[in-house]
Specification:
Number of strands: 13
CATH topology of the largest domain: Rossmann fold
Largest sheet: 6 strands, parallel
Distance between the termini: 82 Å
Strand order of the largest sheet: 1-10-9-8-11-12
Number of helices: 16
Number of domains: 3
Helix content: 40-55%
Order of helices and strands: EHHHHHEEEHEHEHEHEHEHHEHEEHEHH
CATH superfamily of the largest domain: Nitrogenase molybdenum iron protein domain
Strand content: 15-25%
Radius of gyration: 26 Å
Length: about 425
């Protein structure tokens, strides 16, 4: 972890550049995968699953009995933990429900906006070395609360029973297909996997590239997402042991993750770095964390306010305010995916069970994107209703603008109504 002292001539956008580079080979490979799945459907999925996962699959959908029986393969303590996390996530997202809006913009002219859930959503759950229960909950619970009729989960084979159990809680259909091919299947549909209205979920660089490519083809996705990242702002009240643990919790995600510590206190920086060296030795994913730390920084600043200024430039996915009275800095935070306030609010809480959503913008996208929330699973429809009196009041305005745009038929659609009303009077 590189330690530097803040100076006015430092370009933090360049210094803290995420350790991810554009890979044209990945782009080309993903293009080929998407086209194969779009044209060949299930047959392409079978070939790609054999190629990338080494598994022959005849049936992609996991049957209901297998999903139901997964309950017997999950320990009671874990089931209780999953239920607590799901309940908290449900409470927080249920509170985000918004009311429809109806406004009389002028006499006789009424406009309404209503919220409707998406009918069918696709949830991608990565495979790899760990069963990502939290991803199922963070996507499936809000979709359920929003009222989505059908939840389609795609996850690489073989599927861990814990994932199936989490899917049973949210009532999702599960298909054993992973990678870019799963994104393509949900985007365009195959003989067995239905086309979805929107795709959610994290993944490796191939999955991320596939989401970006299908998005460019008109299929909505949740947010642009890349490797995980964390920025911690710590003052003299911070607890180095905690700060080190938080930094390592993100560093262990992947070699391309990035963590940043900013403090106005030299001793906090030094003690935190010492703690990192102690704690990392006990991590099973030590090699991964060490790699991530090579692209990470500790920055000494003069004030907490300066630290927040740098953080806003970086726009972190996760931001921890390990400072005294963190609430007084709340309004200064302009760019962040999710903020964790005080010494006893670890980022892990948001990852799993506090209730907020952990699907957050990375790579600086927090400047213009927010994380997944209840409204991510909805769409809006507007209505308008105009009375005869209303069209007489508004009509000349519409005709004037339509004529200025040289759209005569637009103007005529209004003038004919006004003439009919005039003839009736």
């Amino acid at each position: 972890m590189v330690t530097i002292t803040d100076k006015t001539n430092i370009n933090y956008s360049e210094l803290l550049k995420r350790p991810v580079e554009y890979n044209p080979e990945i782009r080309t490979t993903v293009q080929e995968i998407i086209e194969k799945v779009r044209v060949q459907g299930d047959s392409a999925l079978r070939l790609l699953t054999k190629k990338f996962d080494g598994i022959d699959i005849d049936r992609f959908e996991v049957d209901e009995q297998t999903i139901a029986s997964s309950r017997n393969q999950v320990g009671e303590n874990l089931k209780a933990a999953i239920e607590i996390a799901a309940r908290n996530i449900e409470r927080f997202h249920a509170a985000q429900k918004v009311s429809d809006v109806e406004v009389v913009t002028m006499p006789g002219v009424s406009c309404k906006l209503v919220y409707r859930p998406l009918e069918r959503v696709g949830l991608y759950v990565p495979g790899g070395t760990a069963p990502l229960i939290s991803t199922v909950l963070m996507l499936g619970v809000p979709a359920k609360v929003a009222g989505c009729n059908e939840l389609i989960v795609c996850t690489p084979p073989p599927v861990n029973p814990i994932i199936l159990y989490a899917c049973s809680i949210v009532g999702a259909k599960v298909f054993t297909v992973g990678g870019a091919q799963a994104i393509a299947a949900m985007a365009f549909g195959t003989e067995t996997i239905p086309r979805v209205d929107k795709i959610f979920g994290p993944g490796n660089s191939y999955v991320t590239e596939a989401k970006m490519q299908v998005s460019a083809m008109g299929i909505p996705i949740d947010i642009p997402a890349g490797p995980s990242e964390l920025l911690v702002i710590a003052d003299e009240s911070a607890i180095p042991q905690f700060v080190a643990a938080d930094l390592l919790s993100q560093a262990e995600h992947g070699a391309d993750s990035q963590v940043v510590l900013i403090s106005n206190c030299n001793s906090i920086i030094n003690e935190t770095l010492d703690e990192i060296n102690k704690q990392i030795k006990n991590l099973p994913r030590m090699d991964i964390a060490l790699k991530a730390l090579e692209n990470s920084y500790a920055i000494k600043v003069e004030t907490v306010e300066r630290a927040i200024e740098i953080s806003n430039t970086y726009a972190p996915e996760h931001l921890i305010l390990a400072v005294a009275s963190p609430e007084k800095y709340e309004t200064m935070i302009k760019n962040a995916g999710s903020v964790f306030m005080g010494n006893y609010t670890p980022e892990s809480a948001g990852d799993y069970a506090s209730g907020t959503n952990h699907t957050l913008p990375t790579s600086g996208f927090a400047r213009s994107w927010g994380g997944v929330n209840l409204l991510s699973f909805t769409k809006t429809i507007t209505y308008q209703s105009i009375t005869p009196e209303g069209i007489q009041e508004l009509g000349n305005c519409i005709v004037e603008i339509a004529n200025a745009e040289r759209l005569t038929a637009h103007a005529n659609a209004v003038k004919l109504r006004m003439e009919k009303l005039s003839n009736q009077s």
